[in-house]
Amino acid sequence: MNILLLGSGGREHALAWKLAGSSLCSSLFIAPGNAGTAQCGTNVDLSPVDFEGVRKFCSKQKIGMVIVGPEEPLVKGIVDFFATDPDLQHIPVIGPSGKGALLEGSKAFSKKFMERHQIPTASYREFSTANFSEGITYLQQHSLPIVLKADGLAAGKGVVICQNHIEAVAEFELMLQGNKFGEAGSKVVVEEFLYGIEMSVFVLTDGRHYVVLPEAKDYKRVGEGDKGPNTGGMGAVSPVPFADEVFMSKITQRIIVPTVEGLAKEDIDYKGFIFIGIIKVGEEPYVIEYNCRMGDPETEVVMPRLKNDLAELFLAVAEQRLDKVKIEMDPRICCTIVAVSGGYPGSYEKGLPITGLEEPLPEDSLIFHAGTRMEKGEVLTNGGRVLCVSSFAETVYEAVDKSRDVLEKINYEGIYYRRDIGYEFL
Ligand code: AMP
Ligand code: GLY
To answer: CA 203 to CA 210: how far, in whole Å?
Structure first.
């Protein structure tokens, strides 16, 4: 089968690496990909949101399956585009319909969905310009801190945690009246702040059944000790030491089952990943957010630990027979460290040559490219997050140590990475 994978980050390199190892995959294409995905298949100069371009490419290359990495094409309805096109209908697309992608694409939708299905989450209210002054009164009486969320996709910047009421009101005004996040901020969710430790749970569903993939914890802050601004993710660990059997079974019963059943009951077509951001409050799990895709950099630890053939898993999704599938995981610990461009998550330079990638790798380490591109035989930086080094070991300490060793041999101007990924588990 010829497979087309959409996206260009570390997540897509990890997915491409895993797909390239599948006996079902004859040719793998990645659009647009990066310098790393080019080692697993053929990169195609095509944007994941250019649906017409994707359509033409699928016909020309006789694509038998499409896997969507990032959220944007899903929220823009790529699954519906395929489902309603006579020439594309027969091609399974791994990812939810536009309606299903609203779990990520609209915070208001996802909160209402959780409310309808009694899924534990922070209490909230939704506001728009229509009930703006009611919102101000609500904010002024709200306990601190206050969480404000722009409703739509805001490139990971739409959540603001306010420590006092003046800041909360100012932020609320900026979102609803100042157009801070454009259309994405035309509705705002005001939410109770939950105290706890976070983790990511990954569910793959065929719309009727589901499997749970290895869980992970990611490190979002740029600085060591979880300080400084939020990023796309600076590293990840899997498994998560505090996610024991009891906690995971609470997540399954209270969150995963009602989510999958809720989607089915509401007739929402969903054949793809559900990424559930969990916060552990005391001993109880709450949903912080849903995403309609895999996490990045979590995928860079989840895919190495997953022993199943990924293309076979996706075929089981398309044919709605995930109930026949058993997930097998590597019991070892996998950690990934993300090397970023100097200045990230603020402004940074691109196009800087990367050296040291040709050094021989230890047997249990892998390099996944994120923001890289190839030019005249040279690998150059091409984004904020540049590459991820994932390593296996028996302990978090050893796994992080191995990845750091690999990173020490890699260089580009301004290279930065956190040396303390997994620090709470050492
Ligand atoms: P999101 O963009 O939805 O991933 O939110 C970004 C981050 O904001 C989350 O990973 C949490 O760390 C934090 N956050 C979101 N909602 C809450 C909440 N209700 N209580 C505490 N922290 C939150
Ligand atoms: N690592 C968090 C995310 O992918 O959204």
So the answer is: 7
